Amino acid sequence: MKRFTQKQKDDLVQGYLQSEIPCTEYCKQHDLHPNTLYRWKRQYETKPGEQGSFVEITPAESASDNRQETCIEIRTKNARIQIPVTIGNEQIAYLFGLMGLAHVS
Questions:
Q1: What is the domain range of residue 72?
Q2: Is residue 103 part of a domain?
Q3: Cα angle for residues 6, 51, 79 (degrees, 5° grid)
Q4: 0.85 exceeded by the pTM?
Q5: How far is residue 99's CA from residue 23's CA, in Å, rounded to a whole number?
Q6: Percent of the chain whose pLDDT exceeds 70
Q7: Dist CA 12 CA 38 (whole Å)
Q8: Is residue 1 included in any domain, yes or no?
Q9: DSSP 8-state secondary structure symbol assigned to residue 66
Q10: Strand residues in 30-100 grouped as ranges (E)
Q11: Is the same domain home to 39 and 61?
Q12: Do 41 and 12 reside in the same domain of the chain?
């Protein structure tokens, strides 16, 4: 049984979270059992002291034709949401509050 350092585990979890492929495929590519990756993911998501990390915000792409849509995608360690670019500041503040993030205008 292969042993992984905490950094290797974190890197694999981050790689999975940033990938767009299913867990089973990602695990096959990295010679992992999906249950192991899910356990590491839970540990990664509940690490203390990482509440103030940055959030990745990118333009979302349409799954049907790969054209950029009029929405953005917000990713944190615990969530991934897509919102329309026409959303107002109050709605953004509300969503950020639900996600446990500070709203910066």
A1: 56-98
A2: no
A3: 85
A4: no
A5: 23
A6: 66
A7: 11
A8: no
A9: -
A10: 56-61, 68-75, 80-84
A11: no
A12: yes
